[in-house]
Amino acid sequence: MGSILRLHLLLAAASFAFLPALSAASSPASGAELAAPLVWDMPNEYPASSLSGDGDRFFAETLRAASNGRIEIRNHFDASFGGYRSKDMLNSVGSGAVAVADAYAGALGDAEPIFLLSSLPFVAVTTEQSRLLAESARDAYERALARRHHQRLLYVSPWPPSGLWAKRPVTGIAALKDLRIRVYDAGGLTAFKEAGALPVQISFADAIPQLRAGTL
What CA–CA distance (Å, rounded) separates 103 from 91? Predict the structure, then answer.
């Protein structure tokens, strides 16, 4: 896909707005209430070692500190919680199955086309351009989430440019012929089909077993 920048979204139910009421200036709570923190499960289909994994842990630590230990995030990686992939996160938060979730934005394109913006080829090819794109599009992302899904966007995590990893050199368009490749959104599916490859749109969690089996 050339130099494109992917975007991860941290989603939360609209009730997340009550968080400021849990500050140190809040009304006194009983000892039992203070002893039992609110625990939220937070799924992510990507590994703990990924950029979004780092962001999730940072968010959990920051929220715990900001709430004086009254809110705890249980991070779940590799689609280990409920089997949720990025494409499932809107529904998992919307249904109340989880309070917060980390999703790759492009996987939500079927629900809201605006989330395909960050993975359009060559729109943002540097880290600075990625930051500017995220900042300028944030209002549109927030409106899309609030309008039909009643959810909040907490933060975005720009990723570096995508690339190709293959067993043989990919030095030109001819090398893509019949190459079975995993792509992560509709844009990649179309682009690689047009280039003569055999793309398959699947989640990262599902790609690893297929790579090990040699089917990708």
Answer: 11
Per-residue pLDDT tens listing for the chain (216 residues): 333 345 676 766 653 333 333 333 444 555 555 568 899 999 999 999 998 999 999 999 999 999 999 999 999 999 999 999 999 999 999 999 999 999 999 899 889 999 988 888 788 888 888 889 989 999 999 999 999 999 999 988 877 777 888 888 888 999 999 999 999 888 889 989 999 999 999 998 999 899 889 888
Radius of gyration of the chain (CA): 19
What gap in Å lies between CA 64 and CA 146, rounded to an integer? Answer: 25
Task: Look at residues 76, 79, 80, 49 and name the one whose alpha carbon lies nearest to residue 60.
Answer: 76
- Residue 77 has which token pair? 């990686």
Strand partners, 102: 10
The identity of residue 92, as a single letter, is S
Q: How far is CA 133 from the centre of its chain?
A: 16
Q: What is the DSSP letter of 179?
A: -
